[in-house]
Each structure stands twice: as C-alpha cells, then as structure tokens.
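Hi there,

I know you've been waiting on this one. I reran it after we fixed the sequence typo, so this is the corrected version. Both the input and the resulting structure follow.
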Amino acid sequence: MHTDSSGHSHDHDHDHNHLHDHSHAAPSADQQRMMEQQLNEMAQQSRMLEAYMNDVTNRQAAIGRMLEEARIASATIQGINSEVDVETLMPVGIGVYVKTMVPPVKKVIVNLGSGVAMEKSREDALNFVEARIKEYDVAVRQLEGQRQEIAMRMEQMQGQINSMLRSSQQQQG
C-alpha cells in the first residue's frame, strides 16, 4: 500500500516504473499532425502531377494536330501535278470553298518560321514536310512515354495516400 500526493491510500501489486505497450493505441496528436502534413504534401504533389499530365496531354494533342496537317500537306504535294492545270477547291473559311484552277506546279512556298518563307521545288518541299512528320512522330512518342510515366507516378502516389489513410483509420478504430 502507498499514499499518493493527495494523501489517498492505494493498494497496488505492480511496479509504476514499467513501460506501457502503445502499439495498438490511437496515434498521439503529434503523430496525427505529422500524418496530416504528409497527406497534405502528397495531395499537393498529386495535384502537381495532374497539372503536368494535363500539360503533356495538351502538348501531345497539339503536336498530333500538326502531324495530321503535315500528312495532309505531304499528300497534297504528292498529288500536285507539275504538267497540267488541275481543278480544285480552295477553302475561304468556315467550311466555304471556291472552285479554282491550279496551274502546273513546279515550285511551292514553304514557311520556315519567324516570318521567313522560301520557294522550294516540289521534291524539296516534300522532303521538308516529311522531315517535320518524322520530328512530330518522335515528339508524340516521347510525350506518350512521359504520360505513361506520370500516370505510373500518380498511381503510386494514390496507393501511398490510400495506404496511409487505411493505417490511420486502423489506428483510430
């Protein structure tokens, strides 16, 4: 029997200096705050990955449109006759076309960028377009690889978040 600081007598048969096993106890306030901070940081990283994924997807779509335009240009250049006039439809905007005659084409004007255009032979123009098609193909493949990597990282991040939440719920329940 012993008397505590308030003067009450207690009858105990155990040692007050032993350590308690807290492995199944609820997490402390500090542990809870740390876990919340980690979850917030992971959620922020997840939002950043999602924004990056959207950016890569948008760039991939834009390059896909340029690739399609380049393929159409290639087919058009290949289809241009260099010997006789050809009747064709010329777009004037919003789905309106005008019938026109295209004279024999030996040279085409190629926009090189930065406001610079150059006259090239059909063959040189076709080579220029085909080179762009190859560049766009490579870019689309690289962006698809980035998208897959980001998706994998996002999936891993979500798995970690879900695991932490399950662990937190088990400790509290």
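Quick highlight: Residues 14-23 have pLDDT under 50 and may be disordered.

Best,
R. S.
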